[in-house]
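Quick one: structure tokens for this chain, please?
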Amino acid sequence: MRKVFVSSTSEDLKSYRQAAKDVVLDLEWHPEMMEHFGTDGSVGIVEACRRRVGASDLVLAILGWRRGWVPGAEVGGDGKRSITEIEIETAKTLGKPIVTLLARDDWPGKLWESEPGARKQVEALRGIDRLAVFFDWEPVEVGAVEALPQFRGKVRQELLRHLQRPTALPETHPVPKYLNDEVRALSEALDQAHHREETIISEGGDPASVKSEILDLRRKIREGGNVKAGDLLAGRFKLIELLGHGGFANVWKAYDKSKHNLVAVKVLHPQSARDGSRLDRFFRGARKMAELHHQGIVRVIEERLDDGGFHFFVMEYVLGGELRAAVLANRLPAERIVPLLAQVAEALQFAHGRGVIHRDIKPANILMGVDGQPKLADFDLVRAVDTTGGTLGGGMLGTFLYSAPECMGAPQEAGVTADVYSLAMTTAFCFYGKELPYDVLRNAESFLEQLPCPPGIRAALRKGAEWEASERFQTVAALAEAIEKGLATPVEIEKPKTAARPLKAKPPVPNRSPSLLPFLKKQVANLPEADRAGAVLTAIERALPFGAEDLKTLGGVAWALDYFSGRSAQVGEREAAAALRERAFAPLRERRPPPPIPGRIDSAWAVIPTGTFQMGSPPGKGFDDERPTHQVAISPFRLGTYAVTAADYALFAGKGGSKADNLPATGMDWYSAYAYAAWLGGRLPTEAEWEYAARGGTEHEYTDRNGKETALGQVGWYSGNARQKPEPVGQLEPNPWGLYDMIGNVWEWAADWYAPYSAEFTTDPWGPTSGGRRVVRGGGAWVGAARARAAFPFLPMSGETRDPR
């Protein structure tokens, strides 16, 4: 991307400067500039000017007769040189092309050329490439609406003379990664309909009928409540590929049909859009991000758009991917870590100087340009000094391994030093080369001491990641400077004399000290709700360690940590749950290591997108315990493409394989199934998650891979097509999300206790706190069609054949 350095002689010209920046952005270039009456404090004005101008392709100078003087200490002599003169002289020295535009910055009624200050300025700038003087329109006060359109036109004309617009991409835009052939056909029909609409309008006709066709095609593409690859947002942005998904929004690679280039589109989940505070925070972050014009911050192109209830904003597309992926793939050489993080710190310092605190700095939110330039993204969690900010329901913002302690307790009060902490932990991740361990939460200092980097860098990171905000570096610039110094010399930073990280008091476990499983299964539900998460943590910590073969205890412990402590509103309890889960399964994993956690793309795992669906069956269909139907919102998750096979389970149980390794694993109880899922690093799906996944984003009873309605025998083994015993996995048609055998073959365990449904709308429900029996789903090879359905919940009896997924 081309970069234009925008200079002006005084703050009185800020209206013109902003207009020039708008033109630069409209041309899809990047505006660079420095504040005229000081810098960020890390370098002097002359050096800052050299750096910024040197990184630009052209200097655009907007001149008035007033000038901002540079202190004498900076330039020698009496200091009578304006910042603009220094910028232009620097550009001439570096061989950069220069465009100069003259504008009024005093009073109306005087010709600009009559001012002695202006004449002196023009004389000082002789020899530049082009001098465009505005003598053909009457001078007006700065900021007057009448002048700015003429000014913008002149800026565009002069810039295009020097920096021609990049060659447009070919008319044939990238092919979307369609979900299936049906979506492809709908998307192609939508393109044709839009083309007909444009033709009709250009010929003066009435496009009403084709508009109706367009609405119908869009509705069909978005069936299931989600946009898909091939969809067209705002009649302009063609969705090509899903780049990433989060709890509140998805990011898509898209093709901008009006400007013929690739962009990134961030789409808020529909259920989040119904929450006014989340919607406001989503667009507030986009607005603040759009105000930050810096080469190290992802540029926002359109900050607030809506298409049929889908809210989104548009950013530049950064081709190089995330810093996290680069580190995990060993694509970031050690010698690049410090320079790269220094660039991130510069961009973050720029944001802080404008009152914006990111509060979610982590490797996944730093994107890598193909030129190696890092760019900060995901400002939807920002707090600006002129806004009230926002939090996530009293919970933690960002990823807790990178979040400062104050973000966990009072995120709305987190300041600059919270970003210092997160940047320090991000730097630690880069040197560590893999995901940070949970032990960082308990003893960050010990972890940092083991990093493979010079002692001076470790010392800087220790100070940057101090528990108390007052003990950290107070700016990210100071952290970056200490890291850069530590690269060359073992800088020792005095260790603060503060107490260790405070421990939260733990709720008591009942005095009768019951055995662990009965307590977790029944008795914890009788405690006050506010005490349950802490009581579970205390009981499990006292009972550690567990034997590698004690699968029943391991399964019960994993569920209780996930259900009570893992969903706690207290961040500390959620962190402690994750750490205890790791400790509980350590002996088993040491004896029988699980397969690697799957990457972003893994054929053995299906990505289930966020969405809403009607859970259960309406009156007149199915059984009574499938009612009442109720709307459920589900966050994105991953699920095994196939049912767990005998071979899969043998690795976990420590048993040898057999000739039937490709058959689904059977005969395990619920505890063993949950332990198996936790051993892999996950958990069993909830009843709602299972039904949502089994439906595959459609309303059909049975659906093929293309989302079309089909017969049960095409997608599931049941009494009508099976041999009264389990069949090998993956033999029939998968559903639209690539899941095999969700219906039939063997029953599959869900995480929930059985309970009647509520008619209320819910988000990610987990069922009751206790119960008599767990639920299984899906039907089996020996059951009839009435029970081989997505909506049918079954209460298992002793001896039933079941399987985890």
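Residues 719 and 783 are 5 Å apart (CA to CA).
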